[in-house]
């Protein structure tokens, strides 16, 4: 099992500076093998009324799934996003987001996962995503 320190370091080691600028932090991992990230509330990522923009949610979801794959395999494996399908359920305003990513299935060449974004304060789900990755 990959620890929080290793996953946090992966955010610096494998992601572009603009993804690092999101300020994602790895939270204590879930027992079922999921990865949990915190996206701090930021005016730079907010639209009017303090609502978190969808682009930031999608980037956080994609990033969380790569970390979930690292946890699943016990190491980084090069991969690329083939599909990211996102449904925005409701706005998230003036609070941090928690992003929980879970690998559903990972084979030799493809991996599939699901992500839930929810408010850190109220726990309400605001965005759901499903992903497909090509493992290189």
TrEMBL record:
Alphabetized GO MF terms: hydrolase activity
Transmembrane segment boundaries: none
Hydrolase found in the keyword field: yes
E.C. no: 3.1.2.-
Keyword vocabulary terms for this entry: Hydrolase
Pfam family, one: 4HBT
Keyword Nucleotidyltransferase: no
Thioesterase domain location: 54-124
Membership in a protein family: Belongs to the thioesterase PaaI family.
Protein name, UniProt field: PaaI family thioesterase
